[in-house]
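Project standup — Tuesday

K.O.: blocked on the structure for the chain from last sprint. Re-posting the sequence here as requested.
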Amino acid sequence: MTKENRQRLVYIVLDYLSTNVAWLLFNIIRFATIAGRQHQFPTLETYLEDPQVILGQIIVPIVAMAVYYLSGYYNTPFLKSRLQEIVVSIASAAVLTIGIYFAMLINDVTDDRLFSYRLLLVLFGLLFLVVYIPRIIVTQINHVKIKHRTLTFDTLVVGTSYSAIEFGKRLMNMRRSMGFNIVGYVEADEGRRSPELDKPVYALEDLDSVCKEHNIKNLIIIPHRHGIKATIDLINRLFPLDLPMFISPDLYHLMTSGARISNVAGEPLIDISRTDMSQSTVNIKRFCDIVISAVTLVIISPILLAVAIAVKSTSKGKIIYTQERIGYHKKPFKIYKFRSMYSNAEEDGPLLSSPNDPRVTKVGRFIRKYRFDELPQFWNVLKGDMSLVGPRPERDIYIQQIVARAPYYSLIHQVRPGITSWGMVKYGYASDVNGMIERLRYDILYIENVSFSVDMKIIFYTIRTIITGQGI
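H.V.: unblocked you, prediction finished:
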């Protein structure tokens, strides 16, 4: 078990135990203020032995753990923001309090409404304080360990130039550690190796096996001497490692024409492997993807059958068309679509579709217009290859052309690709690379503003597009 999973397990166990204690304390107070007064139970012992009270003692902590998970609290076991921790703990306690009230406490009989509100406030206070205190103690212990370098995370610096060595030394010699433990360098530019190297140097081609063998946790990317394009090419090669990749704010500014602060107390670094999306949004988004895609596949099964019959009976070839696309963290996956073109449509090589494309079948034109060809992608969503909402995934051959002209396209790989996107809503299908780059502007805007409300808006407009038949 990795130290991240061990730490995550510590938080989970503490949260479960502390939630049990909080709910037990609330039941004791509830007995003293309501059940005892109404003489429903002669003693506290008989009250706590009541089947409904026992059931509540079992269910409430389990439901609480689901809320804590959706809050994203367990996503990052180390390097937690203490301000964010208190905000997440307050929000989780508030959600639980409201849920418990409507599910279990709304029938508590009392003539004093103000007293009921006070009892709810007590419940909120217990769910917050009893859970938060163990959390902040563990978090503070970890912060002290990181500060004094007794807890570190093995890190590779991608670059072997003089500036790379100086940057690594500066991180290691900081008065307050940021948790990075530089264990080696990666040669990303042949012939640019500083003579002051004092740690192992690894070849870029061997980086995948090196990261696994040495349990590397972070990569710090030093700008390439050949400029932004060479640096972007390097970042694209590193995305599939599925590791946090840190760059300097000035490099991020060159890529996006924008800036955001990632670290205030230490060396300013930006994790380019992920968006600024909150961890709660990440988990809720994935939870909604699973539930909605599973339910949708069941509901639309008659439509899937009808489209499958129509595709098979009107043209030769497979019903489901599969194609390799590039997804989250630049990992390839097979995308599923109903075949809308003749089976030999790309015998002369990859070619984007156009509005009057002769390769599209009659049925294909109809299902493309109403986006029925995209319906099998709900299976991609259920599998985790895609999300309901996210930038449309492209083929690697087109990604290379896009990146050559729009380096910031690399940011697309920070999130899962989607069935629909802001780019698809505002621009639609792209018939050439110019169109892809134009659509990319909307997708970058989405990544910088991703939220549950934005996803709902995109889904609403997508449904309107389908109903009105504006799919082409």
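K.O.: great, moving the ticket to review. DSSP finds 17 helices and ten strands in the chain. Confidence is low (pLDDT under 50) at residues 257-265.
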